[in-house]
């Protein structure tokens, strides 16, 4: 294999740091293990963020997400851990991570975690006719 999973997140310089804009990513192949049974858990992650000075590099994000495949984690903990690591790496103006986990014990779980840079205000939404 030419690549391996890693906990390292790489970034690149935001090409338009003077503008608030939103980056949205859908990561449909997240897997980890149930910490109680060791069985695989599957989720689709949705990442939305307003970058400040840096953006997350996609290949490093893919390898980072892959690194959870053999780890046991509760849905709530892993969603917040990933958000914390992404915030640490990119220092965004705003970031939201949603983990939509597949059924476990007849229950679907969705975990939403957010970070907001102190003092940052979201722009007013524009409604067009």
Offer a quick outline of the entry.
This protein is an alpha+beta fold and 129 residues long. It has helices at residues 58-66, 75-90, and strands at 11-13, 23-33, 40-50, 54-56, 94-104, 107-116.
Task: Explain what this protein looks like in three dimensions.
The protein is α+β, with helices and mostly antiparallel strands. It has 2 helices and 6 strands; from the N terminus they run ββββααββ. It has helices at 58-66, 75-90; strands spanning 11-13, 23-33, 40-50, 54-56, 94-104, 107-116. The strands form 2 sheets. A 4-stranded antiparallel β-sheet has the order 2-3-5-6, with helices on one face.
SSE layout and pairing:
Elements: E1 11-13, E2 23-33, E3 40-50, E4 54-56, H1 58-66, H2 75-90, E5 94-104, E6 107-116
Antiparallel strand pairs: 1-4, 2-3, 3-5, 5-6
What strand line-up does the widest sheet have?
2-3-5-6
Number of strands: 6
Order of helix and strand elements from N to C terminus: EEEEHHEE
So what's the overall shape? globular
Quick check: average pLDDT?
A: 96
Rounded radius of gyration (Å): 16 Å
* Weakly predicted, low-confidence segments: none
Helix % is 10-25%
Distance between the termini: 52 Å
């Amino acid at each position: 294999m030419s690549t391996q999973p890693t906990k390292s997140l790489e970034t690149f310089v935001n090409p338009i740091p003077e503008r608030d804009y939103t980056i949205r990513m859908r990561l449909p192949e997240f897997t980890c293990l149930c910490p109680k049974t060791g069985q695989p858990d599957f989720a689709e992650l949705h990442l939305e963020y307003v970058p400040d000075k840096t953006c997350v590099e996609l290949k490093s994000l893919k390898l980072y997400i892959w690194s959870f495949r053999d780890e046991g984690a509760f849905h709530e903990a892993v969603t917040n851990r990933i958000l914390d690591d992404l915030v640490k790496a990119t220092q965004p103006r705003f970031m939201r991570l949603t983990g939509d986990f597949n059924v476990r014990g007849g229950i679907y779980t969705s975990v939403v975690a957010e970070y907001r840079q102190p003092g940052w205000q979201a722009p007013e939404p524009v409604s067009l006719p």
